[in-house]
Design goal:
Main location: membrane
Order of helices and strands: HHEEHEHHHEHHHHHHHEEEEHHHEEEE
CATH architecture of the largest domain: Orthogonal Bundle
Radius of gyration: 22 Å
Organism: Hevea brasiliensis
InterPro entries: Cyt_P450, Cyt_P450_E_grp-I, Cyt_P450_sf, Cytochrome_P450_Monooxygen
Number of helices: 16
CATH topology of the largest domain: Cytochrome p450
Structural class: alpha+beta
Distance between the termini: 43 Å
Shape: globular
CATH superfamily of the largest domain: Cytochrome P450
Number of domains: 2
Strand order of the largest sheet: 1-2-8-5-3
Largest sheet: 5 strands, mixed
Membrane topology: Single-pass membrane protein
Protein name: Cytochrome P450
Strand content: 5-15%
Length: 434
């Protein structure tokens, strides 16, 4: 228990704090080991070639594991589907997230980032510096970006949905590990969870109806999804689009906000690299607003602090893994965090922030290119990767143009897993305008 409650020093390995049980499993039984999760057998595979095999297997042996029904209130979109339904839905909505389509949303990304810079300038104006929790700031930014890019002219309604979804995330997380049947008891909190879900759906349904009636030609994600619906011959419905919008809020805010948070923490811990990144941005952009191609160091942070620390799969039928016969009903645990911190693939200085590892590209950064997969791998690679990358690149470049930053004495280093990897006690930094 102490491992997950006490902060650690900046140079300590993070795995013993984030996953103390799995850390002990690997040390005692190796990278391929079996344990029990309640009555469910669980097989951990911490070897890149086995992870790749599970994620790219095409015979239908592996599916997403069963989850608490309340999680469906957050992510009932494409990520919850399997088999032919998943393949068809993903094929339909993927064009909405192509880089060329997203480039049309750059003005919306820019507006949100400019608002952040303006707010920080005001906060630092009185004393020439200020301390703030950038984790909170980036959650506000990510929510604002999603509201702007997903709903365009319906931005205010988008913000309302975002606020409801924020409340829903907290309520669902609170009940996530509870006994399953308890979620069906009409307690005050359970009633609130389902009331929020219905309010979000009603608001989105009204917005979709108005857009369809107006024959909107705006370039926002909701319009792009409606185009997919129009072209799909009833393979995607209005209710499906509602679930995709909810998933975008849930996944898009958590991932990008925590990505930016860890980036500023790491650059504060490594001021020499912060300055190199700033020089790079200023050489390319000067003081102009950056574009999507101007900042290329972001993914490096995701080795040390991957947003998704572990993936789970479930054996649908008997299969064979590395000579082991695995029956149906076994949970397969794929620990991204362990592979990203494995000295066998990254060297003895694995815990150090060394961007030069990636000087010759991601595929040459380690002994196995599968040792780095921050957005998943193969068919299940994250659909929102381009969206998150554009937002994070633009925000970081603008921050580097306007501020230098350092860790506050009040910062406690406490990496923790909830849905994504996040700093448990916040990310208190001191900002100085340039």
């Amino acid at each position: 228990m102490e491992a997950v409650t006490k902060p650690i020093s900046l140079n300590d390995p993070i795995i013993p704090r984030v996953f103390p049980f799995f850390d002990a499993m690997v040390k005692n039984y190796g990278k391929v080991s079996m344990s029990w999760f309640g009555t469910r057998p669980r097989l951990m595979l911490a070897e890149p070639e086995l992870i790749k095999w599970v994620l790219t297997e095409k015979c239908g042996h592996f599916v997403r594991p069963p989850v608490n029904p309340l999680v469906d209130l957050l992510e009932r979109g494409v990520s919850s589907l399997e088999g032919e339904k998943w393949a068809k839905r993903r094929k339909l909505i993927t064009p909405a997230f192509h880089l060329e389509k997203l480039k049309g949303m750059i003005p919306a990304f820019t507006r949100s980032c400019c608002d952040l810079i303006h707010r920080w300038n005001e906060l630092t104006s009185a004393q020439g510096w200020c301390e703030l929790d950038v984790k909170t700031e980036f959650h506000i930014l990510a929510g604002d970006v999603i509201a702007q890019t997903a709903f365009g002219s319906n931005y205010k309604e988008g913000k309302k949905i975002f606020q409801l979804q924020e409340e829903q995330v907290l309520l669902v997380l609170e009940a996530h590990h509870s006994i399953t049947f308890l979620v069906f008891i009409p307690t005050k909190k359970n009633k609130r969870r389902y009331a929020i879900d219905e309010e979000i759906k009603t608001t989105l349904r009204d917005m979709i109806h108005r857009k369809e009636q107006a024959k909107s030609s705006n370039v926002d994600l909701l319009d792009l999804l409606l185009q997919c619906k129009k072209q799909s011959e009833n393979d995607i419905t209005t209710e499906d689009i509602i679930e995709e919008c909810k998933l975008l809020y849930f996944a898009g805010q958590e991932t990008t906000a925590n990505w930016l948070t860890w980036t500023l923490i790491v650059l504060s811990m490594n001021p020499n690299w912060q300055e190199k990144a700033r020089v790079e941005v200023l050489q390319v952009c000067g003081k102009r607003t950056p574009d999507v191609n101007d900042q290329n160091r972001l993914k490096i942070v995701l080795r040390l602090y991957p947003l998704v620390t572990v993936l789970f799969r479930h054996t649908l039928r008997e299969t064979n893994i590395k000579g082991m016969s695995i029956p149906a009903g076994v949970e397969i645990l794929l620990p991204i965090l362990f592979v990203h911190h494995d000295p066998h693939y990254w060297g003895d200085n694995v815990e150090e922030f060394r961007p030069e590892r990636f000087a010759e590209g991601v595929s040459n950064a380690s002994k196995d290119q599968m040792a780095f997969y921050p957005f998943g791998w193969g068919p299940i690679i994250c659909l929102g990767q381009n969206f998150a990358t554009i937002e994070a690149k633009m925000a970081l470049a603008m921050i580097l143009q306007h501020f230098w930053f350092e860790l506050s004495p009040s910062y406690s280093h406490a990496p923790c897993r909830r849905i994504t990897l996040y700093p448990q006690h916040g990310a208190q930094l001191i900002l100085h305008p340039i």
